[in-house]
Amino acid sequence: MKHPLLKTFILAGAIFLAWNCSDSGTVSGIGDYPEYADFIVTGNCHWLPGDVDYLIYEDGTVTDAQGNPVGSFIAENGSIIAADGVTLIVENIDINTLQILNPDIVNEAKTQKEQSENGGNPGEENPDVDNPDSPNQPAIESSSQNYDPTLSSANIPAVSSSSAGAVDPNGYPIASYERLTEGGSGVTKGYATRYWDACKHHCSWPEKVNQNANPYRIERTCNINGQEIPAFTKSSDGTWLQGTASSCDNGPAYVCTDMIPVAVNDTLSYAFAAVPASGDICGKCYQIQFTGKGFYDYGNPPKEPVKLLAQKKKMLIVMATNIGYDVSNHQFDIMIPGGGVGAFDALSKQLGVNKSDLGEQYGGLQSACRQKHGDDASAATLKQCVTEKCNSLFTKVPELQKGCLWYADWYEAADNPEILFKEVQCPQYLEDKYPSTINTSPNLNSAPAHQNF
Question: What value, to the nearest 5°, has the Cα angle with vertex 165 and ends 164 and 168?
Fold first, then answer.
């Protein structure tokens, strides 16, 4: 049923954007104690009062006041869905208006209830209720307090990056990813950089991918117009396989322009990345989230854009498609148009521009904006600057323009954030974007005849 007292949900897809409470005072209930005195609360949660009281926890789970599981909170539309993933229980929730409870607050309410029912203890005051400075007073978190979730990944609430019924841009259900914590199983600390040189990737060469994989998968490659072409063909005499030459070697093979980062929702995106040159990396996926620090801060306070990535609880799932001999251990060089060409450059040819128009060789448009506005420029200033450069540079290739704007918008125009990462199962969206639809077998007889593309 619909809750009769709820305001319109206004968070636009963000789960617990700010765990705040507009009033830290006692909520009057029956007698002189808060009505949540009998609730069973196991952690920080938002309290949705009504005919049935619902508790919305940080990881998106929902219980009733007695702690019985109810379902899940869907951030995208501010609703509670039953455990069957279909039945709508409540909708249009403005979570920012709800009071936050935690076990300490509820235990204090239980104490108030007991005192109220027993008539109190004459001559004594409850120090935790009447003295807000008491060290035992349970804190109610507020966005107006000095609360910085970027100081430790342990401070970042667990977030389900998906919800029942939510789908990605290709219509696939979105998997749920637990928040990573430093020291957790399989979790490693690293950092993220960015690039887009338009060259053919490591994983588009037949000798670089697993020949015995079933199914066989080699990364797609495209021509200068973003249309798929063979990653390899038969040699001109038809006796051996010949990789289609890379655009960075004056060949026809470019990375496909639709392999840009894509936002699934406000907290989750998919992307491709180059990783260190070690082992069979092609097609492996990794969960990445942000600590709120910059990798190159060298002890200085983190810049605003990298802090925003953590404060907004953003998460990337990336697939490895390339290597870089200049990519160090635990580094992810994320494919972002306008992120800098690095050691090679076919992008200026693809766009028909001068190399100087691409921004800094390492860092691209954002680095050029920082040179213009200063290293401590605000996130808003950098985002506006990068947006203007994206719209100017990529007018002829809308897909690349979209990927560049993703960096200014979803990625907060952040520069080299520190990350936590862990290998995970690839989402189907990335699985579909990756493989060649032309070269589906490593066999010579299945390869198209050599030709100029």
Answer: 110
